[in-house]
Amino acid sequence: MIAQYTTTLAQKNIIAKNTYQLLITKPKDFSFAPGQYMFLDFPNPTNADDKPSFRAMSIAASPHEEHLMFVMRGSDSAFKKNMIAMTEGDEMIIKGPMGHVMLPNNSTQSITFLVAGVGITPARAMIKYEEHAKSEREITLLYASRTKDSIAFYDELKNVQLANYRAVFTLTREDGEWEGKKGRINSELIEKYVDDIQNTMYYIVGTKVFIDSMKELLEERDVAKENMQFDNFG
Ligand SMILES: Cc1cc2nc3c(=O)[nH]c(=O)nc-3n(C[C@H](O)[C@H](O)[C@H](O)COP(=O)(O)OP(=O)(O)OC[C@H]3O[C@@H](n4cnc5c(N)ncnc54)[C@H](O)[C@@H]3O)c2cc1C
Questions:
Q1: Where are the domains of the chain?
Q2: Are the CB atoms for 105 and 29 separated by under 8 Å?
């Protein structure tokens, strides 16, 4: 049975365009692995639609951080309306943790994150975990967002203190003030920034369309199935 907890919202912030961060009080003795997700629900939701009242959300925090963190885009769904209406101290229901996307046990295995949009959440948890553990493995983050103001954790992810880390941000829509990469994550970008394409562990996070396109691209380059892990946000 999945464990269920009633806890409270400690803080709600807007951290990028239409992007909400919820910091939630960790239940006592709660443990999870970086990359896992939970179901988020509300005890007395005021809005309802034809969908369930809860959603799956990746834990964006590493286990060593004080709060559980969830990050999501706003939308017109009843769930998101309920989320936006939440204020500090309100009760929340969380179920889990769940999910088998895990960091490799082998500490020398290099890892590559291919993420789009709010798919950054489990990647952020794993990267912060590795930073805390002073990992020396090679870690590459390729992170696609629409516009600069929609990038969640831009400064934090640019400034991660890891021995062998690089973060590449790319924008898929024109943005006047951006001097970095533009366009989707493609073979060219992967070949430029990933040293050994066949021998890294890929974490691919985003919509189904994004995941399918990354999978196809890696399969064309003979990357083994065992070297790809997916978090499909739908
Ligand atoms: C393991 C896992 C982890 C996840 N982690 C995160 C996370 O960290 N952050 C996050 O933001 N999301 C995450 N998700 C996705 C999340 O559960 C929600 O599906 C997502 O946030 C959209 O929720 P919503 O209430 O805005 O939209 P929903 O009401 O659930 O609708 C889902 C999608 O259906 C489409 N849709 C809905 N209604 C209409 C309509 N009337 N017309 C046309 N299209 C429509 C839209 O494209 C919409 O985005 C995760 C999902 C999984 C499975």
A1: 4-97, 111-232
A2: no
Cis check for the bond before 97: say yes or no (omega within 30 of 0): yes
Distance CA 229, CA 211 (A): 10
Distance CA(97)–CA(200), nearest Å, equals: 26
Q: How far is Cα 6 from Cα 23, in angstroms, rounded to an integer? A: 14
pLDDT tens digits along 168-203 = 999 999 767 898 999 999 999 999 999 999 999 999
4-97 and 111-232, same CATH topology:
no
Tell me which CATH homologous superfamily contains domain 4-97: Translation factors (2.40.30.10)
Ligand 1: which of 53, 72, 76, 207 to mutate, most ligand atoms within 8 Å of CB? 72
Report the C-alpha gap between 229 and 156 in whole angstroms: 24
Q: What is the pLDDT of residues 84-120, one digit of tens each?
A: 999 999 999 999 999 999 999 999 999 999 999 999 9
Please report the atom of ligand 1 found closest to the CA of residue 76. Answer: 26
Distance (Å, rounded) from C-alpha 65 to C-alpha 67? Answer: 6
What does the alpha-carbon distance between residue 63 and residue 104 come to, in Å, rounded to a whole number? 16
Which atom from ligand 1 is nearest to the alpha carbon of 78? 25
